[in-house]
Amino acid sequence: EQTLIPDTPDTLAEMMTESGSGSGLPLLVQRTFSRQITLIQCIGKGKFGEVYKGTWRSDDVAVKIFSSRDEVSWRRETEIYRSNLIRHENILGFIASDNKDTGTVTQLWLVTEYHSLGSLFDVLQNQTVTKEDMFYMALSSTNGLMHLHMEIESMGDKEYRKPAIAHRDIKSRNILVKKDGRTCCIADLGLAVTYDSQTKNVNIPPQGCRVGTKRYMAPELLEDSFNHTNFDCFRQADIYSLALVFWELISRMDDDGFVFHKKHELPYYDSVQSDPPIEEMKHTVCTLNKRPNFSERWKSDFALRKFTDLVSECWHKNSGARLSALRIKKTLLTILETFQNSKTEKKEVNTINSCEKSDH
Ligand code: ADP
Ligand code: MG
Ligand code: MG
Questions:
Q1: How far is the CA of 148 from the CAs of 98, 157, 185, 268, 304, in angstroms?
Q2: How far is the CA of 98 from the centre of ligand 1 (A)?
Q3: Least confident of 9-23, 86-100, 148-162, 304-318
Q4: Whose CA is nearest to atom 6 of ligand 1?
Q5: What is the structure's pLDDT at 135?
Q6: Where do the annotations place ATP binding (predicted)?
Q7: Any idea which ligand is nearest the CA of 168?
Q8: How far is CA 174 from CA 120, 187, 191, in A?
Q9: Taking 90 as the threshold, does the pLDDT of residue 42 lie above it?
Q10: Which atom of ligand 1 is nearest to the CA of 92?
Q11: What is the average per-residue pLDDT within 28-37?
């Protein structure tokens, strides 16, 4: 078989750096590459397709295989991952996209970096997190969302412009955890909306306006009072969903042996049924204006109180009152800094104490 890649690099890392492009390998290389992958096992099942762990040479990759029914999502996700300047530490690393026409069926593939810990949802199911890791997980997710939301403009040169992107399906299942156990990256971009301020065009994919996971849907979407010509509204809806993810995180935080939730729970687990219909969500979130509970204990801890204040602002009923991703990032950095300082102070006090003890 004739190879389409001259002097093929041996590792994925080499291949990605040699491509020189900010948004992926050259298209022909993407196709050849994906056809050299061996699928190992199914690691996730979504509504429309399946995600597999696969290998290319000695590297692991993840392959999301869409059914032909969901070609729209595959097309959209591919398009978003191929946008200029999308690559970021906190956005799932895109490698290749391929549509294989076998004559009878079309196989639609999306190849990305593989993260063995899986999604944030999986991690919170399996374990609790430390206070510091919780802040890092929140911060890195925010960084990813901030990069998505940000439009990067540049004079003239189209290569160096990035559209603003809103995710529209932020939830713990769509955030992956890297192998250090605390760096998160945002995945599942199949519903994303883009915006270009030069053309003032909000580009909504064919799936429509009121999409996403109902449980995580912002009140204005549930009520259908959403202004889809204003891109800021899409950003604000993402922030609401992110706040629910933050609540999932803090609920699984181990604070000196205290964990709010012994087992991981989804937001509104105590208010709605599983796979709730939109009317039920609307009643809970809009009519009753209910939000997930906080533990009393968090009020007496400086960093945790700041964090819960942040969460409350981000799931505010009034979308205009929610914070921007940049604002959340700044607040989280301050919280993290105070927390780390108090940790070193505590350590110092402990060392002094033990020195005093050993003195006597
Ligand atoms: P869908 O659009 O069907 O929801 P996702 O892209 O969200 O598909 O993937 C579904 C699940 O597969 C995720 O929740 C996660 O558990 C797993 N998954 C997806 N991509 C990866 C990856 N790159 N590494 C590890 N697990 C992944
Ligand atoms: Mg998903
Ligand atoms: Mg999806």
A1: 23, 20, 11, 27, 27
A2: 17
A3: 9-23
A4: 188
A5: 97
A6: 64
A7: 3
A8: 8, 5, 12
A9: yes
A10: 23
A11: 89
Give the pLDDT confidence of 57-97 residue by residue, as tens digits.
999 999 999 988 889 999 999 999 998 889 999 999 999 99
- The answer to whether 159 and 84 are in contact (CB under 8 A) is yes
Q: 64 labelled as ligand-binding?
A: yes
| CA–CA dist 130, 134 (Å, integer) | 6
Which residue pairs, CB below 8 angstroms and at least 24 apart, start in 30-35? 30/95, 30/96, 30/97, 30/98, 30/111, 31/4, 31/96, 31/98, 32/3, 32/4, 32/5, 33/5, 33/95, 33/96, 33/111, 34/63, 34/96, 34/97, 34/98, 34/109, 34/111, 35/98, 35/100
Which ligand 1 atom sits nearest the alpha carbon of residue 190? Answer: 2
Widest Cα–Cα separation across the chain: 84
Q: Tokens 């803090």 belong to which residue?
A: 250
Q: Which two tokens stand for residue 256?
A: 């000196």
Residue nearest ligand 1's atom 17 by CA: 44
Q: 82 burial class (0-12, 13-18, 19+ CB within 10 angstroms)? A: middle
Q: Which residue do the tokens 């940000």 mark?
A: 150
Q: What is the pTM of this model?
A: 0.93
Residue 169 bears catalytic tag: yes
Q: To which residue do tokens 């899409």 refer?
A: 234
- 50 Cα nearest atom in ligand 1: 3
Ligand 1 binding site (Cβ under 6 Å of any ligand atom): 43-44, 46-49, 51, 62, 64, 92, 112-115, 118-119, 122, 173-174, 176, 187-188, 190
Three-state DSSP class for 195? strand
pLDDT digits (tens, 9 = 90+) for 182-196: 999 999 999 999 999
